[in-house]
Amino acid sequence: MSGYCHSAPGHPIHGPYHDSEYGFPVADDRVLFERLCLEIFQAGLSWLIVLKKRPALNAAFDGFDPARVAGYDDGDVARLLADASIIRNRRKIAATIENAKRFKVLQVDHGSFSHWLAAHHPRDKADWVKLFRQTFVFMGGEVVGEFLMSIGYMPGAHHPDCPVFAELTKIQPPWMKA
Fold it and tell me: Is residue 166 in some structural domain?
């Protein structure tokens, strides 16, 4: 095994995410929005930092409720920039707020963000990146790819020899059904 499947199992922080979240299908829009935001916050940093700060990020961003985050104003931005428990990057905070607004539009237009994703599946990574760049802000190839792998829309989250891969095979995430 290599990569995340080699280093994460048994790790006190990476292990639970690797074993029970990474690569598993997600339909809950709040969880989808959180994952998208976490990938933005991870850009240029280690995933370990993001996982360590995840509880604080959830608290600071009202559980990543897109409706609440979309309503954030300059006072909220100032509050977030002053919060030492989170990743304080003005561009990432602004992207999270702007993306919440765009996320809400997709929910209205498609019934849910989950339905929007399903309507565009399957695609190759380049087409997903193009779509996400047209739809959201702060969308690089790694952000989009990791987000889609984390929610089961793209392969690569787990090595075929990883025990979690066997679990995923049983539940057939979207990329396996394509």
Answer: no
Tell me, yes or no, if 116 is annotated catalytic. no
Does residue 176 lie in a domain region? no
- Tell me, yes or no, if 39 is annotated catalytic: yes
CA–CA dist 94, 89 (Å, integer): 9
**Is 53 contained in some domain?**
yes
pLDDT in tens, 38-96: 999 999 999 999 999 999 999 999 999 999 999 999 999 999 999 999 999 999 999 99
Provide the number of structural domains found in the chain.
Answer: 1
**Residue 162 annotated as part of some ligand binding site:** no
Q: Is 18 known to sit in a ligand binding site? A: yes
pLDDT tens per residue, range 86-108: 999 999 999 999 999 999 999 99
The dihedral sign for the CA sequence 111, 41, 158, 127: positive
Q: Evaluate whether residue 118 is within a structural domain.
A: yes
Sign (positive or negative) of CA dihedral 30, 106, 92, 5? positive
For residue 60, give the CATH number of its domain. Answer: 1.10.340.30
Integer CA distances (angstroms), 69 to 28, 63, 73, 90, 147, in order: 16, 9, 9, 15, 19
